[in-house]
Amino acid sequence: MKLRVSAVQYQLQTISSFEQFAAQAEHYIRTASEYGTEFVLFPEFFTTQLMSIGDEQGNALTIEDLPNFTEQYEQLFTSLAAKYSMHVIGGTHVIRREGKLYNTAHLFYPDGRIARQDKIHITPTEVEEWNMAPGDGLEVFDTDKGRIAMLTCYDIEFPEIVRMAKAKGADVIFCPSCTDDRHGFYRVRYTSHARAVENQVYVVLTGTVGNLPTVDFMRANYGQAAIITPNDIPFPPRGILAEGEINNDMIVTADLDLDLLYEVRERGSVTTWRDRRTDLYTDWK
């Protein structure tokens, strides 16, 4: 089985209305649809662009205001997923639940369903500056093209959580990210490669580019999309099916062949998933 995926290097820029945000989002989805894409991934925190709309005094909105756009956000991406017959991983959006803020990845199915995964590991900045709460569980999601997981940015830096996703049957990890400098970017990028090797899964990664001069903690972004494979003979030697140009506004697209994953898990040069020493350490099932 094959599935075609696209990852959006989303260009953050100041806007003045939700309609501008909607038009930019549809531009990327429409473009991906022209490539025959079945799954499109947006970055973490890309909806912070809505904070640049500002209030009546011209001041940027705060993170506490962002959940007020949740209904519009969900309606927009539900309609776009249906219109373009595509699975849309709508990056992350900040939602409020029981008085707490969560950084939540959303999967919009073409049939109108919405699946959600809270970010599990929260960075110090998210805690100290934005008072984010961590998610308390991992889900995997069935689609007509296989089982996937959504792990956001910092999550991919923790081997255990990706082991759990693979143990639950996920073959593709979608990783929306948002990093403001090279250090953060390479932490996420290098660990994405490690998780693909360890678990013999695909990782689809992307991040924000551009800047929001009026929005705290979103003034700088350093991003690049990549579609990452295990490192074995059926795949590219560097483990990269496609990657974007750093900090450019663009989309990357590639086909993921799930049969190749099953093949290397059984008969690869190395069989890292099968060769786990679960007599010595935890088996994540």
Automatic annotation (TrEMBL):
PANTHER family to which the protein is assigned, alphabetical: HYDROLASE YHCX (PTHR23088:SF50), NITRILASE-RELATED (PTHR23088)
Limits of the CN hydrolase domain: 3-258
Gene3D superfamilies linked to this entry: Carbon-nitrogen hydrolase (3.60.110.10)
Name this polypeptide is given: Amidohydrolase
Family to which this protein belongs: Belongs to the carbon-nitrogen hydrolase superfamily. NIT1/NIT2 family.
Originating species: Paenibacillus pabuli
Family annotation (InterPro entries): C-N_Hydrolase, C-N_Hydrolase_sf, UPF0012_CS
Pfam families: CN_hydrolase
